[in-house]
C-alpha cells in the first residue's frame, strides 16, 4: 500500500509536463517497437516478392480484429483502474485487472478458432486475390496460433500504462520486438520458410512479450493479475464497455476500412495493394510517436480526474495537444520531401509500388498535423468517461469519413482518389472533434 500511496502523490502533485513527458517516453518506445517489428515483416518479405508484401498487408486486417477486441478490454479495464486508483479504491482495481485480461484471452481463443475454420473466405473478404491468397494463408496460420498472446499483451500493456507503469510494460514489448526482428531473417531465409517464417517470428515474439509483462505487472505499486479476482459481473462489463467502446469502434472501423481499401486497390493489381500496405506501415510508425505521447497523457488525466484535480487535467491536455501538433508538422515536412526514398525501402524494386506509394504518402503528410487534436481529444474523452463523444471521435477518422472517401474517391478520381482518401478523412475528423474537445475542456472548472 505504501508504493500505491507514493504513486498517488506522484500523479497528483508533480508538475504535469514532467509527468506527461516521463510517461510518454516508454509509451513511445513501446509503440515504435510494435510498429518497427510490424515493419520488419514487411521489409524482410519484400525481398521475396510483391505478393508476400501484399499478403502481410492483407493479414493486417485480421490483426485489426485482434486489436479492436484487445483495446476494448485493455482500455476499458485500464481507464477504470486509473480512476479507481486515483480515488484510492484498490480492491475494485484488482478485480477489474483480472476481469479485463482473462476476458480478452478467452476472446482471443474464440477469434483464432473461428478464423482457422474459415481461412479462405476470411482472406477473400480481406481483399486477397488468387495470386496473394497462398502467401496470406501461410502467414496467417502462425498469427492465428499467437492470437491469445497478442491479445493478452495489448491488455497488459494498457493496464500497466494507465497505472503509470509504462516503463515496465516497455520491457516486455521491447524484448518481444527485438526477438521478432532477430527471428525474421532466421525463419524467412536461413530456414527457407518464406512468408510463413515472418508469421512464426511474430507469434513467438508475442508469446515472450506476454509472459514478461504478466510477470512484471504487479511491480512498482502496480496491480497483480490474480485469477481469484476474476469478477465477470454486469457492473464490471459495463465499466469496460464505457471505457473500451471508443477503442472498439476505432479499431473495428480501422479493420473495415482496411478491407475496403484492400478490395478497392485490388482492382488496380497486386502492386497497388502492396503500395497501400507499405504506406499504412510507414504511417503506423508516425502515429506510434503521436499515440505514445498521448498515452503519456492518459494516466495523468485518469488519476487527476478521479481525484477531482481538474486544473491539472486542463494543463496536461493543452500541453499534449500542442506538443503533438509540433511533432506532426515536423514529421510531415520530412516525409513529404523524402517520400520516394522511404517507399523504395519496402517496394522490392517494383516501380509501380514506388509510384503509387509515394503519392499516397505525400497526400497523408499534408493533413497529418491535424491528427494531434483528433487523437488527443479521443483519449481525453475516453479517459473522463464521455463515452458518446469519445466513440464519435474514435470512428470519425478511420470509418465515418474514410470509407466514404475511399468509395467516392475511387469512383471520381480512380487511383488518385484512393491515394487522397485518408487526407480527406483527416480534415473532416478535425472539423468534427474540435467543438467536442472545446465543450468538455470548458467544463473542467
Characterization of this structure:
With 445 residues, this protein is mainly alpha-helical. It has helices at residues 2-13, 16-45, 50-86, 90-117, 119-126, 133-145, 147-162, 166-190, 195-216, 234-265, 270-306, 310-337, 339-344, 351-367, 371-383, 387-400, 402-443. It contains 17 helices and no strands. The longest helix is centred in the C-terminal third of the chain and has 42 residues, at 402-443. The relative contact order is 0.14. The model has no long low-confidence stretch (mean pLDDT 89).
Walk me through the topology.
Elements: H1 2-13, H2 16-45, H3 50-86, H4 90-117, H5 119-126, H6 133-145, H7 147-162, H8 166-190, H9 195-216, H10 234-265, H11 270-306, H12 310-337, H13 339-344, H14 351-367, H15 371-383, H16 387-400, H17 402-443
What global shape is seen? globular
Quick one: biggest sheet?
A: none
**Helix/strand order:** HHHHHHHHHHHHHHHHH
- Tell me the radius of gyration: 21 Å
DSSP, total strands: 0
- List low-confidence stretches: none
Coarse structural class: mainly alpha
Q: How much helix is in the residues?
A: over 70%
Strand content: under 5%
Mean pLDDT: 89
Quaternary structure classification: single chain
| First-residue to last-residue Cα separation | 31 Å
Count of runs of 4 or more consecutive helical residues:
17
Offer a few descriptive terms:
globular; 0% strand; 445 residues; mainly alpha
Give a quick summary of the entry:
With 445 residues, this protein is mainly α. It has 17 helices and no strands.
Amino acid at each position: 500500500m505504501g508504493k500505491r500511496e507514493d504513486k498517488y502523490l506522484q500523479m497528483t502533485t508533480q508538475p504535469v509536463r514532467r509527468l506527461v513527458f516521463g510517461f510518454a517516453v516508454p509509451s513511445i518506445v513501446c509503440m515504435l517497437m510494435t510498429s518497427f517489428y510490424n515493419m520488419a515483416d514487411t521489409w524482410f518479405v519484400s525481398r521475396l516478392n510483391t505478393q508476400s508484401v501484399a499478403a502481410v498487408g492483407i493479414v493486417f486486417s485480421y490483426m485489426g480484429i485482434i486489436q479492436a477486441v484487445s483495446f476494448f478490454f485493455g482500455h476499458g479495464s485500464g481507464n477504470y483502474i486509473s480512476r479507481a486508483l486515483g480515488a484510492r479504491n484498490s480492491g475494485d482495481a484488482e478485480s477489474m485487472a483480472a476481469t479485463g485480461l482473462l476476458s480478452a484471452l478467452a476472446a482471443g481463443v474464440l477469434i483464432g478458432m473461428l478464423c482457422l475454420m474459415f481461412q479462405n473466405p476470411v482472406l477473400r473478404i480481406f481483399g486477397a486475390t488468387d495470386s496473394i491468397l497462398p502467401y496470406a494463408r501461410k502467414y496467417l496460420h502462425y498469427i492465428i496460433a499467437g492470437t491469445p498472446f497478442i491479445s493478452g499483451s495489448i491488455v497488459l500493456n494498457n493496464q500497466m500504462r494507465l497505472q503509470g507503469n509504462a516503463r515496465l510494460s516497455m520491457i516486455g514489448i521491447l524484448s518481444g520486438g527485438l526477438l521478432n526482428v532477430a527471428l525474421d531473417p532466421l525463419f524467412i531465409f536461413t530456414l527457407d520458410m518464406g512468408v510463413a517464417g515472418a508469421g512464426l517470428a511474430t507469434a513467438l515474439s508475442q508469446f515472450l512479450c506476454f509472459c514478461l509483462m504478466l510477470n512484471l505487472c504487479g511491480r512498482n505499486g502496480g496491480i497483480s493479475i490474480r485469477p481469484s479476482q476474476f469478477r465477470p459481473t454486469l457492473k464490471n462489463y459495463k465499466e469496460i464497455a464505457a471505457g473500451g467502446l471508443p477503442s472498439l469502434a476505432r479499431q473495428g472501423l480501422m479493420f473495415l476500412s482496411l478491407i475496403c481499401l484492400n478490395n478497392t486497390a485490388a482492382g488496380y493489381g497486386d502492386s497497388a495493394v502492396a503500395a497501400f500496405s507499405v504506406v499504412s506501415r510507414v504511417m503506423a510508425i508516425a502515429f506510434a510517436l503521436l499515440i505514445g505521447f498521448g498515452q503519456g497523457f492518459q494516466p495523468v488525466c485518469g488519476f487527476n480526474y478521479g481525484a477531482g484535480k481538474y486544473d491539472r487535467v486542463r494543463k496536461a491536455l493543452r500541453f499534449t495537444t500542442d506538443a503533438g501538433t509540433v511533432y506532426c508538422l515536423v514529421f510531415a515536412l520530412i516525409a513529404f520531401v523524402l517520400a520516394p526514398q522511404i517507399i523504395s525501402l519496402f517496394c522490392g524494386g517494383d516501380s509501380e509500388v514506388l509510384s503509387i506509394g509515394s503519392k499516397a504518402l505525400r497526400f497523408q503528410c499534408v493533413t497529418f498535423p491535424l491528427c494531434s487534436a483528433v487523437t488527443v481529444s479521443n483519449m481525453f474523452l475516453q479517459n473522463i468517461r464521455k463515452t458518446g463523444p469519445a466513440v464519435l471521435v474514435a470512428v470519425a477518422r478511420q470509418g465515418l469519413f474514410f470509407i466514404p472517401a475511399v468509395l467516392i474517391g475511387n469512383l471520381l478520381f480512380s487511383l488518385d482518389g484512393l491515394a487522397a482518401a485518408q487526407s480527406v478523412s483527416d480534415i473532416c475528423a478535425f472539423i468534427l472533434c474540435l467543438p467536442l474537445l472545446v465543450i468538455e475542456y470548458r467544463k473542467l472548472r
